[in-house]
Amino acid sequence: MAVAGAGIGCAMSAVVVPERLPGAPADRQSIGAWGMMLFIATEAAFFCQLLFSYFYLASIAPGAWPPDGAPQLGLVLPNTGLLLLSSGTMWWAERGIRQGKAWQLRSGLLFTFILGAMFLGIQVVEYRHQHFTPASHAYGSLFFTITGIHGLHVALGLVMNLYVQLLAWRRHVTPARHLAVSNVAWYWHFVDLVWIVVFTGLYLAPNLR
Amino acid sequence: MANPPVDAATLARLERLWETPRGLRGILTTVDHKIIGKRYLITAFLFLIAGGLEAFVMRLQLSRPGEHLLSPDQYNQLFTMHGVTMIFLYAAPILSGFGNYLWPLAVGTRDMAFPRLNALSYWIFLFAGLFLYSSFLLGQAPNAGWFNYVPLAGAGFNPGLNIDFYVLGITFLGISTTVGAVNFIVTLLKLRAPGMSITRLPILVWGTLSTSFAVIFAMPALTVACIMLYLDRRVGSHFFDAAKGGSPLLWQHLFWIFGHPWVYIIVLPGISMASEILQTFTRRPLVGYSVLVGATIATTVLGFGVWVHHMFATGLPPLATTFFSAVSMTIALPSAVSVFAWIATIWHGKPVFRVPFLFVLGFIILFVIGGVSGVATAAVPYDWQLTDTYFVVAHLHYVLIGINVFPVIAAAYYWFPKMTGRMMSERLGRWNFWVMFLGFNLGFFPMHIAGLLGMPRRIYSYAPGMGWDLVNLVTTIGAGLFAVGILLFLINLVYSRRRGEPAGDNPWDAASLEWATGSPAPVYGFARIPHVESRVPLWEDRLSGIPGIRYELPPLDQDHETVGTSPLEGRLQAVLHMPSDSWWPLLLAVSMATATAGLLISLWTVSILGALGILGSVAGWLWPAPGSVAP
After folding, report:
1. Complex ipTM over 0.90
2. Inter-chain contact A17–B552, Cβ cutoff 8 Å?
3. Residue A66 belongs to a domain
4. What distance in Å separates residue A136's CA from the closest CA in chain B?
């Protein structure tokens, strides 16, 4: 019990009860931010399993992988650029509200929304040019499921973006309290990061061989 | 010391702030962790009874050779739903129930970090369970075993709705589990009483904390597998179709990447509850607290590296099977260390043999037996001989009943006074324990022998003259006795709820914080949030002469509030305004259930309706209340 006793000594001197306790923090220490981080963690595990499935089936494929040759990069390269740029505009938007520039937040969110929507549009165009479907072979199933589920995440990010824009226009976001913006920004950066991994694994790697 | 000086007016104000409204509105909108916890416990226990009845019918069928009480198809549905029920609808939710009820009290706060997510997680659990069980009404319950291997579960061999109920129901339920895990982690890291540093946590919380992280990383593997199987069955994709470049082994990998961590997810919280109870009844602080915590974390982490031991018979290369065999055997180390820590605690303590402690001792014995058969099957050649036999069935029941059900019953006896204010009958409890313990061993030990005699699992009947008649008859008798034990427990619950002796705040003279408040626990948890100065706060004054808790914070009786602390040191950081009752969790869960049902019957309009409901409920949930600042 000696150890516990020593611990008590420290705690006794450390306990200070302020006159007036601060309200809930709106920063990375807040419970809302922790919730978003854990959501992102489980989403990351989700994409890891999808990519595990891809590489597992690739590793045991008896014939060529991908069966119809490496995917074209013509559309996806600029599209990847758009998504990366949208991470930049999102960062700029969040920086804006921290510095109290509401216009920067609003326009940053709007740019991000436009770039994200363009990404989805180009992805649909790319889908229509594919000469295989999810029902062609296991590669087709994986390609469309992984990029499609990523696309759904982009779409969800756009819905979140709209919600935060609405909050911003209704003046519910302030420099001191903008957790909703930060959470949506973190989610958006995460979705972009996933795309970089998907792009590298599904598009770049087969072309490098 | 235990009860802080708080005047009656303050208590009345706190009561008004925290109580759930009466009537239907309160029932449907409550976010009180104590009510949700009790709902979890009761619902999960009802599923235990359902799964038990399914097992009982199967045992009647197997009690003698050539019995034809059930058709093969009925038997397939029963053993699948028995497994699904016990593993997904009982074993995990019952632990969430104890976690929900106990955590805020044990760490000295007033609710979970996300009270509305907590309500959501219960509603999804309830609806997913009802969804899975509604399959019986169509006579199309899941029928490919709880691990649902393809190609048997594919559209070719299984064209009915059976497997669709499985993949959709399990995916839906996974949302509840994930949301619950996030809630446990954030509650523990952010909402502890000031002074409760990470080294002063009650041992109770370590199991669920550790396995909540496992849920975050393991659950998605099952979700991915279920989505892929749904697409294979309904959209014509080829993930598991060997003819088109897919692989049935992909299902097995994904399932067990989830499945083995899940085994620890449904036992480690039970182990932690047992440690907590053991401490109280040995009348001394646990020997090797840090070692027990380390063992819990090590088991969780190692649990992610053993999944292939479920696949030794699938023809994987020897290098892979050897590696996974070695890691699987390594798990014996933290388990053995824990057993020795318990033995040392009992050895150095002054044990008091009350009913909860009897169940904990029963748990330790069954844990050792189940552990030994586990190490045995981790050896590749031994596993080749026994895989898919009753030996494995014996092993998994020793593990799951031994490490989940026995600690759960112990916990029910132990915390019943805190939940109801009354003691459970000690006399009936002793009968309960001995009937359950003897019935269990009589029923499940012979299964080892049936397996060694070569009896495969999942056969609906067997011919006479195989040498399996006696062991099966004994198993059925033992299982019946075990069921009587569960019945005694139920009788004790009902009897003690009405007639039990009044308990008082701390009937066991226990050390942890939940016993520092009233029994039943008041709606606001603690009238004043305590400062915690020790790992055994209610014993500290007797151990070192220094009080283990002090009350310095104001009662926070002006609003719906509790305090936030720092993750490691438990330093006081802020006053947190807590959400109160809300319709949104229920509406969101109903929308999700609608979307799931639409996917089952391929009515896309229903699914789209559900999706719109989901978006609407989330928007309503998150929209700032009038006059409030940003979240």
Report:
1. yes
2. yes
3. no
4. 8
Question: Min CA distance, B246 vs chain A (Å)?
Answer: 5
Q: What is the pLDDT, as a whole number, of residue B541?
A: 94
Contact B403, B440 (CB under 8 A): no
Asked whether the beta carbons of residue A31 and residue B535 sit closer than 8 angstroms, the reply is: no
Interface test with A, best of B109, B572, B618, B628 (most A CBs within 10 A): B572
Kindly write down the DSSP assignment for every residue of A57-110, as one continuous string: HHHH-SS-SSTT-SPP-TTHHHHHHHHHHHHHHHHHHHHHHHTT-HHHHHHHHH
Specify the length of chain A in residues. 209
Q: Which two tokens stand for residue B19?
A: 């109580």
Q: What CATH number is associated with residue A120?
A: 1.20.120.80
Residue ranges in chain B whose pLDDT is less than 50: 1-2, 629-631
Whether B237 and A23 lie within 8 Å, measured CB to CB? no
Q: Give the number of domains in chain A.
A: 1
By Cβ distance, the residue of B195, B216, B253 closest to A38 is B216
In a domain, A3, yes or no: no
Predicted pLDDT of residue B46: 98
In this structure, is residue A21 part of a structural domain? no
User: Which among B537, B530, B478, B572 is positioned nearest to B56, based on CA atoms?
Assistant: B478
| pLDDT tens track for A39-56 | 999 999 999 999 999 999
Q: How far apart are CA B470 and CA B367, in angstroms?
A: 26
pLDDT in tens, B346-364: 999 999 999 999 999 999 9
Among A24, A52, A138, beta carbon nearest to B244: A138
Range of the domain at A204: 26-57+75-208
Distance CA B41, CA B44 (A): 5
With respect to residue A95, please indicate whether it lies within any of the assigned structural domains: yes
The partner residue sitting opposite B245, judged by closest CB among A15, A34, A137, is: A137
CB-nearest to A4 from B224, B225, B534 is B534
The pLDDT, as a whole number, for residue B624 is: 82
CB A113, CB A166: distance < 8 Å: no
Instruction: For residues A16-43, give the mean pLDDT.
Output: 75
- List the single residue in A with minimal CA-CA distance to B241: A138
Mean pLDDT of the region A75-99: 96
For chain B, positions 589-608, list CB contacts with chain A under 8 A. none
To the nearest whole angstrom, how far is the Cα of B370 from the nearest Cα of chain A? Answer: 30
Cα dist from B605 to B36, B601, B609, B611, whole Å? 32, 11, 6, 10
- What's the CATH architecture for B8-15+33-581? Up-down Bundle (1.20)
Q: What is the pLDDT of residue A24?
A: 57
Q: Confidence class of residue A17 from pLDDT cuts 50, 70 and 90?
A: very low
Residue B542, Cβ density class (10 Å: 0-12 exposed, 13-18 middle, ≥19 buried): exposed
Q: Do the chains contact at B629 and A177, CB–CB below 8 Å?
A: yes
Interface contact B216-A42, CB threshold 8 A: yes
Does B564 lie at the interface with A, CB-CB under 8 angstroms?
Answer: yes
The pLDDT, as a whole number, for residue B631 is 42
